[in-house]
């Protein structure tokens, strides 16, 4: 939170390198922590609370004593597990026998999606990502619209067949053309809805609105990426 300066040793000049103004501080990422009373006994803030308190008070001797107490308790617990043959099973980490390293079980290494990802947070030790699910919502809504259109077409075709049967003699019903137009591509539509989505898009205002919104977001992201590249250069 403090200013950082660069001092030139040759000529004694000083240059401002970092100045955390009030505007910069307002833009900082918010720090999310678990409330102290909700923490378990082995979470760092609770586990090391007495050591931290002693350090804040400037009592180095007390801090060292509290640290020794913690470490001794851990040694005793490990000794008891070893004597009883109990395996230590970490809750959030797993051991890689090949590299002999410990890895976080719930690590998320996928690239950040600016169009769908809102925030990443930890809950009960598990890393989670809050998403907009725009693509899923659009896909579901698109499917609903297409299914509605298919239902209307089928209902219309059924009504046409009924009228054709009632208006024409039975022996001519199969050879007489109906005045109604029965869609021949209903089956094709259900098999490949993407092929016919362009035609249905104009029939649903919500679909068009969300697609335009996605296009605006995509355009804004591309603009930000270009700006970042310019800054990098």
UniProtKB/TrEMBL annotation:
Transmembrane spans: none
Ranges annotated as biased composition (Polar residues): 167-187
Molecular function via GO: lipid binding
Database matches in Pfam families: Oxysterol_BP
Lineage top rank: taxon: Eukaryota
Gene3D superfamilies found in the cross-reference section: 3.30.70.3490
Biased composition (Basic residues): 151-164
Region (Disordered): 144-187
Name recorded for this polypeptide: OSBL5 protein
Species name: Halcyon senegalensis
The organism's taxonomic lineage, starting at the top: Eukaryota, Metazoa, Chordata, Craniata, Vertebrata
């Amino acid at each position: 939170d403090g200013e950082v300066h660069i001092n030139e040793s040759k000529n004694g000049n000083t240059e401002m390198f970092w100045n955390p103004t009030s505007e910069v501080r307002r833009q900082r990422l918010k720090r999310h922590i678990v409330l102290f009373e909700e923490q378990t006994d082995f979470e760092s803030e609770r586990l090391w609370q007495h050591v931290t308190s002693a350090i804040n008070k400037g009592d180095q001797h007390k801090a060292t004593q509290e640290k020794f107490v913690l470490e001794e308790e851990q040694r005793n617990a490990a000794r008891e597990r070893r004597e009883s043959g109990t395996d230590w099973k970490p809750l959030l980490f797993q051991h890689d026998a090949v590299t002999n390293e410990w890895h976080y079980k719930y690590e998320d290494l996928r690239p950040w999606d600016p169009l769908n990802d809102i925030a990443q947070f930890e809950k009960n030790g598990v890393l989670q990502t809050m998403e907009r699910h725009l693509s899923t919502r659009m896909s579901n809504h698109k499917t609903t619209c297409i299914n509605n259109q298919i239902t209307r077409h089928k209902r219309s075709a059924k009504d046409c067949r009924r009228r054709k049967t009632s208006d024409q003699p039975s022996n001519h019903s199969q050879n007489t053309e109906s005045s109604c137009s029965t869609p021949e591509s209903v089956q094709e539509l259900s098999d490949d809805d993407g092929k016919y989505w362009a035609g249905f898009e104009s029939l649903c205002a919500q679909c068009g609105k969300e697609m335009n919104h996605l296009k605006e977001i995509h355009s804004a992201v591309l603009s930000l990426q270009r700006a970042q590249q310019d800054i990098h250069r």
